[in-house]
TrEMBL record:
Pfam families: Sel1. This is Sel1 repeat family protein. SMART domains: SEL1. It comes from the Bacteria. InterPro entries: Sel1-like, Sel1_AlgK, TPR-like_helical_dom_sf. Residues 1-26 are annotated as: Disordered. It comes from Herbidospora galbida. The lineage of its organism: Bacteria, Bacillati, Actinomycetota, Actinomycetes, Streptosporangiales.
Length: 466
């Protein structure tokens, strides 16, 4: 039998509630005074609804002292909001000790977030999960992830997912993908997507794209777009562009661009140029350029000069792009300065060194792998990677090995052909393999990506492909 705390019976100090139309307040007050725990609980709730926190607390204490679990839970909530942490913990623990799942989950959360007591929190989350708390199952999964216990994490995520937690189903997809279990990833993303989880639909679309199934990917992107997923709109724009359906591509890119995505603002500008809509192209290039996008600034500058005869505006944006190291913008700016009798400044811009850039998109399946890797590695803030950089790494390897035929060893061949140390080429190949075949090695760190990116750019330059 649960031992409840002693509660003082200051009944005379608490006035009865205002009479309800049906006499409910009078009846409850009489029953509560006579020792009816259920009536005392309901009376406390009635006072709480009328904004009398002190009276509500008194009657809940009266009911909890007589063994009413709901009142003990309410007192935990009351003290969490209006009282002390220790009192809140005490009442939650009393309710949780009777098997109340929500009280156990709330107790665990306070212990973890307010007291930093992870072992005790874990115990009460387990108690709550055993009593059917989906929220507790998910928190246990995340705690296990933090501790590196991925097998247990997947078990708890699975339990939460099967109980209807779509976010845990989405997480299961990523845990499967990161371990190289693409079938498992596909299963759980589909499970969550069918329940209306837009991110799961989008990532399943990326996986199908990576597996060279653009038609299947499009179905998933459309599903995600129904929930206004900007990435899905961008992917649908790319698919329409690949079919040369410019009007549809424009609609999707503009939809994504409207959410502030700079890459899609630039793409919307390019499509509008193709459709001979200079005004709309200027709008989208201008928005992307104002956000610091050098390529958009370059194109905006050219457009202002060619379509609007705005030499001053064109020069401004060419200068902005050139200042960020955009080689073609520097060349155009030098030409413009020469034509306006500013040869000395023009010479300075014409001597801007050409840096090894990446101005071509990777194959769709490679870009999809890059985005999945970024999402998987950074799902819980663990690693911050960049989609464009990973796409450049994958695209570089694809470019430099495209014409090779078996049984040539690409690493040896590239090292000999370029003069790069074989270890650097091996590192590039290893990171590429991890991105294409997850689970074979941990995701690369940002520092590792930076080194490999330098190798990729040096390799293109030495082979004359930059």
């Amino acid at each position: 039998m649960t031992m409840w705390p002693e509660v003082s019976a200051r009944i005379a100090q608490v006035p009865p509630p205002r009479p309800a139309a049906d006499g409910e307040g009078d009846d409850l007050h009489a029953a509560a005074q006579a020792g009816d725990a259920r009536a005392a609980h309901l009376l406390g709730r009635l006072y709480a609804q009328r904004g009398d926190r002190s009276a509500a607390r008194h009657w809940w204490e009266r009911a909890a002292g007589a063994g009413n679990v709901d009142s003990a839970f309410n007192l935990g909530k009351w003290h969490e909001k209006h009282g002390s942490l220790e009192e809140s913990l005490r009442w939650y623990e009393l309710a949780a000790g009777t098997g109340d799942a929500e009280a156990a989950a709330n107790l665990a959360t306070l212990l973890l977030e307010q007291k930093g007591d992870a072992p005790a929190a874990f115990h009460w989350y387990e108690t709550a999960a055993a009593a059917g708390s989906r929220r507790a199952s998910r928190r246990l999964a995340l705690l296990c992830e933090d501790a590196g216990e991925l097998t247990r994490a997947r078990d708890w995520h699975r339990r939460a997912a099967l109980d209807g937690d779509l976010t845990s189903a989405h997480d299961l997809g990523f845990l499967g993908y990161s371990c190289g279990e693409e079938g498992d990833a596909r299963h759980w993303w589909e499970f969550a997507a069918r329940g209306g989880h837009a991110e799961a639909a989008y990532h399943l679309g990326l996986l199908l794209h990576a597996l060279r199934d653009p038609e299947g990917a499009e179905v998933l992107y459309r599903l995600a777009s129904q929930h206004d997923h900007p990435g899905a709109a961008s992917q649908l724009g790319n698919l329409a562009l690949a079919r040369r359906d410019l009007r549809t591509a424009r609609a999707w890119f503009e939809r994504a661009a409207g959410t502030g995505r700079v890459d899609d603002q630039r793409m919307a500008g390019f499509v509008c140029v193709e459709l001979d809509d200079a005004r709309a192209a200027s709008h989208w290039f201008g928005r992307a350029a104002a956000s610091g996008d050098a390529e958009a600034a370059y194109n905006f500058g050219l457009l202002l000069i060619a379509e609007h005869a705005d030499m001053s505006g064109g020069e401004h944006w060419l200068r902005q792009a050139a200042a960020q190291g955009h080689y073609r913008a520097a060349v155009e700016l030098a030409t413009l300065l020469t034509a306006t009798d500013r040869a000395m400044e023009a010479e300075r811009w014409s001597n801007l060194p050409k840096t090894p850039g990446w101005d071509r998109p990777a194959e769709p399946e490679l870009a999809a792998r890059a985005e999945l890797a970024v999402a998987a590695a950074g799902r819980r803030g663990e690693t911050s990677l960049d989609v464009a950089e990973l796409s450049e790494i994958l695209g570089t390897w694809d470019m430099v090995t495209r014409r090779l035929r078996d049984p040539i060893d690409p690493i040896t061949w590239l090292s000999e052909k370029s003069g790069l140390h074989v270890g650097a080429v091996e590192h590039l190949a290893a990171v590429r393999a991890t991105l294409l075949r997850p689970g074979t090695a941990p995701w690369p760190t940002p520092t590792e990506v930076e080194r490999v990116l330098e190798t990729a750019r040096d390799l293109r330059k030495r082979l004359g492909l930059s």
